[in-house]
C-alpha cells in the first residue's frame, strides 16, 4: 500500500486552506433540443455563461433544469443545436464529447457518494488521471478546504448531512474543473444548516473561479448565490438577468409569481390609466378597454397611512415572522385579501381598521393573457 505522506503545506493554506483555482471556462447552449422518453425536454434552449460566472437556474418541477446540467456534462446527448465550452463544440446532433473530456464537475442532489470508499478515496476517485501523489495532494487540499481533513479515513455514512454535502463539494472541486454543475446542492439540508453551508459553498466557488450553474427551487437562494438568475420554462429560458432586475422587471406574470407571493387585481385601461380599488395605476402603451393585471408584492407597493390619506381596509389575519408581520388585509372591491409584510408592530391586530396608500411606482403591470 502507498505510504501516505503527511502534508507539509498546512501553514500555507491557513486554518482551512483554499480551494484550488480552476481555469474558468465559457459555456454556451445554442438552440439546444434534448429528448427524454420521446418528449422534447429542452426546446431550442439558448444560454451563455461568461467564464467564472455563477448562474442559478430556477424553474417549475419538470421544466428541464436537471436535463440542462446533464446535457452540459455530456451524460445526455442533444438532438439539435450545439453546446460549446470555450468555443469548442462539445455536443451537437450525432456528436457528444465524453463527460471525462469536458472538464466539468458535477454534484448531485443526493450527493452520490461511494459508500464503500473512505472520504479520501471518494475524492481521489475523480483524480485517477493525474497520478497518485498529485491526486492525494489535491484531494487533501479539497478536504481541508471543506473542513474534513481530519476525517479522511472515515466513510460517508459516518458523516452528518451537512458534512456529506461538503464531501460532495470537495469531490467535485478537487479536479479543479473549469465548469461546475450543482443540482440542488442544499435541498437535503435543514434550513439552518443550509444557510451556513450555502455561504461556505459560495466562498469556495468564488475561490475556484469555476463557471457554475446551480439548480435550485428556492428563489431567495438563487438571488443570494447567482451573479445572474435564469428562469427555465418548458425547456427554454424565459428570462435571464441579475436577481434584482428580474425581481423589479419580471418578463411576465409567471416570472413575477416565481419570486414572491402576489396580490393580483384585474383592471381595465382608460386613457393610459387603470382604476383599481386601491387607486389609479399607470398603464402606459395600453389601448383603451385593454384588461391588465396589477400585481402587488407583499413589500413595497402599499404603505400604512393616517385616516384620510389612503383607502380603508381591515386586517383579517396576522402571522408573525422574524421581525416582520405577515398581514392579510381586506379592502372593499377586492375579491381576496391583500398580503402585506410590515415591520413588527404590536398595534397591528386582526380586526383593526387601517388605511393603505398605493405607491404606483412599485406596482407591476402585465397584459391579461
Ligand atoms: N429518464 C427519463 N425518461 C423520460 N422522461 C424523463 C426522464 N427524466 C426526466 N424526464 C422528464 O423530463 C422532464 C424534465 O425533467 P428534469 O429532471 O430535467 O426537470 P427538472 O426541472 O430538473 O425537475 P425537478 O425540479 O422536479 O427536479 C420532466 O417532464 C421529466 O418527467
TrEMBL record:
ABC transporter domain boundaries: 27-259
Gene Ontology MF, one: ABC-type ferric iron transporter activity
GO CC, alphabetical: membrane
Keyword entries, A-Z: ATP-binding, Cell membrane, Ion transport, Iron, Iron transport, Membrane, Nucleotide-binding, Transport
Source superkingdom: Bacteria
Listed PROSITE patterns: ABC_TRANSPORTER_1, ABC_TRANSPORTER_2
InterPro entries: AAA+_ATPase (IPR003593), ABC_SmlMolc_Importer (IPR050093), ABC_transporter-like_ATP-bd (IPR003439), ABC_transporter-like_CS (IPR017871), ABC_transpr_FbpC (IPR015853), P-loop_NTPase (IPR027417)
SUPFAM superfamilies for the chain: P-loop containing nucleoside triphosphate hydrolases
Similarity comment: family membership: Belongs to the ABC transporter superfamily.
Protein name: Iron(III) transport system ATP-binding protein
Provenance organism: Devosia enhydra
Amino acid at each position: 500500500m502507498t505510504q501516505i505522506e503527511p502534508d507539509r503545506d498546512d501553514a500555507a493554506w491557513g486554518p482551512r486552506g483554499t480551494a484550488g483555482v480552476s481555469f474558468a471556462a465559457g459555456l454556451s447552449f445554442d438552440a439546444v433540443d434534448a429528448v427524454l422518453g420521446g418528449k422534447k425536454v429542452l426546446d431550442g434552449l439558448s444560454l451563455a455563461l461568461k467564464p467564472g460566472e455563477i448562474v442559478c437556474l430556477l424553474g417549475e418541477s419538470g421544466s428541464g433544469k436537471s436535463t440542462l446540467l446533464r446535457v452540459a456534462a455530456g451524460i445526455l446527448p442533444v438532438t439539435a443545436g450545439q453546446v460549446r465550452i470555450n468555443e469548442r463544440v462539445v455536443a451537437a446532433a450525432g456528436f457528444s464529447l465524453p463527460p471525462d473530456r469536458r472538464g466539468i464537475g458535477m454534484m448531485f442532489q443526493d450527493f452520490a457518494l461511494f459508500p464503500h470508499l473512505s472520504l479520501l478515496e471518494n475524492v481521489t476517485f475523480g483524480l485517477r488521471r493525474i497520478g497518485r501523489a498529485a491526486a492525494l495532494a489535491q484531494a487533501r487540499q479539497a478536504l481541508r478546504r471543506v473542513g474534513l481533513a481530519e476525517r479522511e479515513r472515515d466513510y460517508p455514512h459516518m458523516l452528518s448531512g451537512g458534512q456529506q454535502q461538503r464531501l460532495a463539494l470537495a469531490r467535485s472541486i478537487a479536479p479543479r474543473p473549469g465548469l461546475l454543475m450543482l443540482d440542488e446542492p442544499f435541498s437535503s439540508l435543514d434550513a439552518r444548516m443550509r444557510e451556513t453551508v450555502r455561504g461556505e459553498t459560495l466562498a469556495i466557488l468564488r475561490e475556484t473561479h469555476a463557471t457554475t450553474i446551480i439548480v435550485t427551487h428556492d428563489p431567495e437562494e438563487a438571488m443570494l448565490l447567482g451573479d445572474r438568475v435564469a428562469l427555465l420554462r418548458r425547456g427554454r429560458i424565459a428570462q435571464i438577468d441579475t436577481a434584482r432586475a428580474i425581481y423589479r422587471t419580471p418578463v411576465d406574470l409567471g416570472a413575477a409569481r416565481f419570486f414572491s407571493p402576489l396580490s393580483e387585481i384585474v383592471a381595465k385601461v382608460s386613457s393610459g390609466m387603470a382604476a383599481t380599488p386601491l387607486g389609479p395605476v399607470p398603464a402606459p402603451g395600453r389601448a383603451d378597454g385593454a384588461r391588465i393585471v396589477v400585481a402587488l408584492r407583499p413589500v413595497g407597493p402599499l404603505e400604512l397611512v393616517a385616516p384620510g390619506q389612503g383607502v380603508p381596509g381591515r386586517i383579517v389575519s396576522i402571522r408573525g415572522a422574524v421581525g416582520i408581520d405577515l398581514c392579510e388585509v381586506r379592502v372593499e372591491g377586492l375579491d381576496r385579501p391583500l398580503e402585506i409584510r410590515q415591520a413588527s408592530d404590536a398595534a397591528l391586530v386582526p380586526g383593526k381598521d387601517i388605511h393603505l396608500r398605493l405607491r404606483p411606482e412599485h406596482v407591476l403591470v402585465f397584459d391579461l393573457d
